[in-house]
Amino acid sequence: MANKLVIKVTAGADAPERCSQAFTVAAVAVASGVEVSLWLTGESSWFALPGRAAEFELPHAAPLPDLLESILAGGRVTLCTQCAARREITEKDVLDGVRIAGAQVFVSEAVQDDAQALVY
């Protein structure tokens, strides 16, 4: 059984249900004691910035700021290097606790023997 969950979320406001599912699964896993690494890529990259999660709305879903806060508190959140560059987001712009890293780091996390990777 995997002891670590690596979740890549590629969707943001453009696909709100898929985005919310990724954050919900990550938050539930953190609350369950699973080691979580959440990767923000594509349109979800914007949620690495202060206040952006608060702009996200989806009926009958947990508030994205709450989910993100719990993931940051108990897991790791990473913003894709290329996605950040395309949006002109730098390390000084992101929320405290969010790192910027690239595909090499994602692959090294995802292929660990005790890891399970999910992509939304």
Oligomer: single chain
> Major sheet, described briefly?
5 strands, parallel
Spell the H/E element sequence: EHEHEHEHE
Give the mean pLDDT: 97
C-alpha Rg (nearest Å): 13 Å
How far apart, in Å, are the first and last alpha carbons?
Answer: 21 Å
Percentage of residues in helical conformation: 25-40%
Q: Detail the poorly predicted runs.
A: none
Q: What is the overall silhouette? A: globular
Strand content: 15-25%
Widest beta sheet: strand line-up: 4-3-2-1-5
Please identify the structural class as seen in this structure.
alpha/beta
Number of E-state strands: 5
The DSSP helix count reads: 4
Q: Would you give an account of this structure?
A:
By secondary structure, the chain is an alpha/beta fold. 34% of the residues lie in helices and 22% in strands. The protein has a five-stranded parallel beta sheet. β2 (35-40), α2 and β3 form a beta-alpha-beta unit. The chain is globular. The model has no long low-confidence stretch (mean pLDDT 97).
